[in-house]
Design a protein that fits this description.
Blueprint lengths: L1 H32 L2 H11 L1 H17 L12 E2 L4 E2 L10 H28 L5 H16 L6 H23 L14 H32 L1
Antiparallel strand pairs: 1-2
Helix pairs in contact: 1-2, 1-6, 1-7, 3-4, 4-5, 4-6, 4-7, 5-7
């Protein structure tokens, strides 16, 4: 149970740190360039891979759920109230499908971090230092682009609350038979959650180091 709770806490920490990283990066770039538009465009280039995966997740989830969807736009949308690094127009739909579409980048991001890290670790012919750089870049991109809009964040909060209460119910009142919720707490499932929490920790530690560096540089 503790591993699942740690997993949820890391997602919450990832949300908090990604917001801080965005602000810190934009502040530094604005100081360097002196132009908000140029700063946002440089930032969007730095995080372009993650933003593309984020918007592609929305796009594919909408297609799968038969919700009309427009083309993916990766050009920043800048106005006085908000900054959007990318977006994909999605038609209005019922709350359930809206929730699934909204949390798609989180699910895809976590899978990309976990499976991508495992894949890179197992690849031969790449030096350890290069592997670490690739893993760090991949995870850093994912953790800082999983939460980029208020609608996505609302969906993630709902998901985490539902997940938390389901875990409590299944832990204290396990169900057998077809559902077999006991599998959630089997050794193999716990091992997957352990690996995921470790892989999530890598970019979170990097975020903390960068935030400390940015804060120190401001002084």
């Amino acid at each position: 149970m503790i591993h699942f709770l740690l997993f949820i806490c890391l997602i919450l920490l990832g949300f908090y740190l990604s917001v801080r990283i965005t602000g810190a990066f934009l502040y530094v770039l604005l100081k360097i360039t002196g132009n908000k538009k140029i700063a946002v465009y440089i930032y969007s280039i730095i995080f372009a891979p993650g933003v593309f995966i984020h918007e592609a997740s929305h796009f594919l989830a909408a297609l799968f759920l038969l919700v009309p969807v427009g083309n993916i736009n990766l050009l920043p949308d800048i106005n006085e109230n908000r900054i959007r690094l990318g977006y994909v127009p999605i038609a209005s739909t019922d709350p359930f499908r809206r929730l699934i579409i909204g949390i798609a980048p989180l699910v895809v991001g976590i899978l990309t971090i976990t499976l991508g890290t495992k894949f890179l670790i197992g690849v031969d012919g790449i030096g350890d230092s290069h592997k670490l750089l690739l893993i760090g870049f991949l995870n850093f991109q994912m953790i800082n682009t999983m939460f980029v809009s208020k609608k996505d964040i609302e969906g993630v909060w709902i998901l985490l609350v539902i997940l938390f209460f389901l875990l409590l119910i299944f832990y204290f009142f396990p169900v057998g038979g077809f559902l077999n919720t006991r599998m959630l707490f089997s050794p193999s499932c716990i091992e997957i959650i352990k690996d995921t929490t470790v892989f999530l920790s890598i970019p979170l530690i990097l975020d903390i180091i960068l935030l400390i560096f940015f804060k120190t540089a401001k002084r």
